[in-house]
Amino acid sequence: MPSGAPEGERARLVPPAQLRLLAALAALAAAVLLAAGWSTERGLREREVVQLASALERHAGLIRARIEGGGLAPAREAALQTIAIESSGTSGARVTVVAPDGRVLADSDVAASELAHLENHAARPEVAAALGSGRTGRAIRKSATVGRRFLYVAVPVAGGRVVRVAEDLSHVDAEVAALRAQLLRAGLVALVATLPLGFLLVRRSLRPLREIAEVVGSIAEGELDRRLPRGAPDEFGRIAAAVNAMAGQLQARLRELTEDKERLQAVLSGMVEGVLVVDADQRVVLANPRMRELFAFRGTAVGRPTWEVVRRAEVQQAIADAASKEEPIVVDVSTEAPEPRSLQLHAVRFPSSGPLLGVVAVVHDVTEIRRLERMRRDFVANVSHELKTPLTAIRGFAETLRSTDVPEAQKNAYLDVILRHTERLQDLIDDILVLSRVEGRQQPFTPTDVDVARVASALLRDV
Q: Most buried of 60, 131, 270, 283, CB within 10 angstroms?
């Protein structure tokens, strides 16, 4: 990528996960190289020490044969210094002859005059092994006499003495150090050479993860139509199949939820009743358009307290009562604006038992029902009054005719009144039947002209 590329694009070339995995592989390779180097170095050191010990043991055997072959008695121990120096000169090793009590009788690296000042060697491990068991003793330690690390091999000699041959291990340490340097250089070269290959392998291995992360991120942002390509039947392939199946299920469920929401919205929008849903804190969760129309509130109702949306004390009380009781609450509410209405509110909590989640209130507009009820009451009262007048007249004239002797001319007049009121009753009953059929939409309502003066004169005449 050009040097002027944005930092984000350059960072995406080597994502942090890839760098961490590459660093882990490099650390693992370094650890393997270090372990292999340490094992190789240790094996080389042990092999060199074993070979050197075998050579020193053979050299000590030659010195022992020389001492025993010369028949050196303890009285002639002074000649041992010469043998030690000569034997050391031929091999380069330090040769020491120790008495049975641990005194140093001869030492190729110490002058004869200084032998008496040397520390007693009876406690030295290799000397103690040779003196105690009569077998060859070995030990590696830093010499207290000359201050360097030595390999000591001690063999018993006739007369209870011990010949100890020591070789400085500096050349072994030098060989090990040289091998260590070679291994370090080889390891560095191998590590540097494998880093590009490791980078390519890591990048190729993480490519499915990057694709999965990208597609999952797109799905999380709502792009449910994104899918992962079907790969090999390995772990990444199974993950891709699972992600694709999850995206398909989410898409189907989202479609179902959207359809359900649209259906619910259509039902709520088409309802002639107002619906109000509040949560346990009495904040509005849902309010349909009819509810807005009935209580004339504006703006967004969802999330607001109920008392801000519907400012009616009886509504607040009904919702509070429904939240605290299991049975439905029914109250009548009257509104004046924007027009007088008679409303009936049914409120019930949900669920009906257990922890309260909210309250559902359904408001019915019963204005027309109340008006019809008033009209029916008024009609019944009017009909009762209209029926009472002719019935009273008929009864009065009938009782008069029955209880007194009425002249024939007046009797006919009374009978005429009774007949007229009977006809009036018949007309009233016919009118009631017509009104019933008109109200039931079984007969068309046809208005006609009425002579009010004639009707009034007839009524006054019958009174």
A: 60
